[in-house]
Design a protein that fits this description.
Layout: E1 7-8, H1 16-29, H2 49-63, H3 79-82, E2 87-90, E3 96-105, E4 111-112, E5 115-116, H4 117-130, E6 135-146, H5 151-168, E7 171-180, E8 188-199, E9 214-217, H6 223-232, H7 249-258, E10 264-267, H8 272-284, E11 287-291, H9 299-308, E12 321-325, H10 330-338, E13 347-353, E14 360-363, E15 369-372
Parallel strand pairs: 6-7, 11-14
Antiparallel strand pairs: 1-15, 2-3, 3-8, 4-5, 6-8, 9-12, 9-13, 10-12, 11-13, 14-15
Helix pairs in contact: 4-5, 7-10
Length: about 375
């Protein structure tokens, strides 16, 4: 379940008592992470606090160990430490940078309203490149197939991969196939690696964000997570809703053409918008103030979340991204996004502030404020 945090009465102005409380919370959250779990749980794959703990407490120390041979994290500023959606490599010509990303897809069910594991694998990887400011060029595809998977279903999945790749303007250039025993892979898993190129003079990153900047969202949130939940059929839910899985390259290109000074972008997949904004706040050192009423959410998503006790801000998306732009360019940014199919409801949803560094505070629809923390637990497992 999403951790809805602390709620305060009053408007968005934080008095000194609240500031002091926020400062204490921020100091507590900045303590060095300690990984205490003995086994991996589903929460470690949800994109929230448990995922961050796994990365910072286990993965990074192992892969970025110092030269002392003791396995200790040397704290260096490596591409892994940045925890971006992709890694940036300078090219010899000096005019472009290579961007590389990789992702695995384990969604269940494999087919859902608006998409499948096949187009999800393509779009998820293409979108990680796009929000890094790169033009996607090529993909590799790895298939882990379970014994007993129907070949007709595999053909459907691969047809969706091919169609999504054509729509995104990328080519699948290499891959691998493995087969495992029955009940060892839930049918099939897909892993993709994507490469793209971006201009070396493009300044995108959390370090570019400044107080006073505006946070924008490219469209309605929560469609994908709820569409997958409905497709599972466990809760007898029905909703006139389809996943938002789509390539974000056209929307990102339109935004960067209109506002080259765009500061930062991230697609709001696992953990949703709230977790993405927490990652931004932590990486930039700034605070984020969100206006809940301004966040676009379709009525079926609101209804499903109210029924299940979920928060749309924590529900996964596959064709929606969050960006930060200079406040004086918001009009240009929104006009550019709204000209792209699928982004007609793009909106300004908040701002970057100096009041509460590294924290996300939401102005609620009831006139109060609440802290939006990282996702706690795993409300919707296996959604990508």
């Amino acid at each position: 379940m999403a951790d809805k945090g602390l709620e305060f009465d009053g408007g968005s102005e934080l008095d000194e008592g609240r500031r002091a409380a926020l400062a204490r919370i921020e100091a507590w959250r900045q303590r060095a992470p300690v990984f205490r779990d003995d086994t991996i749980t589903m929460a470690h794959g949800a994109g929230g606090k448990a995922s961050q703990s796994l990365l910072t407490g286990v993965v990074l120390p192992a892969l970025t160990a110092g030269d002392g041979g003791d396995g200790a994290d040397d704290g260096g500023d490596t591409e892994l430490h940045r925890l971006d959606d992709g890694a940036v490599v300078d090219m010899p010509d000096g005019g472009h940078q290579l961007v590389v990303t990789t992702d695995a897809f384990v969604v269940t069910p494999r087919f859902f309203a608006g998409g499948s594991i096949g187009d999800l694998a393509v779009n998820g990887t293409v979108n990680d490149l796009a929000v890094m400011g790169a033009t996607p060029e090529a993909l590799t595809l790895s298939l882990v197939l379970e014994e007993g998977l129907a070949v007709s279903e595999l053909r459907r999945i691969l047809d969706d991969v091919a169609a999504a790749a054509r729509a995104a303007g990328v080519t699948v250039v290499a891959g691998d196939t493995k087969v495992v025993e029955r009940e060892a892979a839930d049918g099939c898993y897909l892993t993709t690696t994507g490469i793209g190129f971006r201009r070396s003079d493009l300044g995108l990153g959390a370090d570019q964000v400044r107080g006073g900047d505006t946070v924008i969202c490219s469209g309605p949130i929560g469609d994908h997570g709820i569409a997958v939940l409905v497709a599972r059929g466990d809760l007898a839910l029905t909703a006139d809703l389809v996943s938002d899985t789509r390539p974000l390259t056209p929307a990102v290109s339109a935004l960067l053409d209109a506002v080259p000074a765009t500061r930062w972008m991230r697609d709001a997949t696992r953990g949703g918008v709230a977790s993405v904004l927490n990652e931004l706040a932590g990486a930039s050192g700034c605070g984020v103030e969100l206006d809940e009423a301004a966040v676009p959410v379709r009525r079926p998503v609101v209804g499903a979340c109210e029924l299940l006790g979920l928060d749309p801000l924590y529900i996964a998306n596959e064709g929606t991204f969050v960006a930060v732009v200079p406040a004086d360019r918001v009009g240009d940014a929104l006009a550019a996004l709204r000209s792209v199919p699928g982004c007609e409801e793009a909106a300004a949803i908040g701002r970057i502030v100096d009041d509460h560094p590294r924290l996300v505070v939401a102005n609620t629809t009831f006139g109060g404020t609440r802290i939006l923390d990282m996702l706690v637990g795993d409300p919707l497992p296996r959604i990508c």
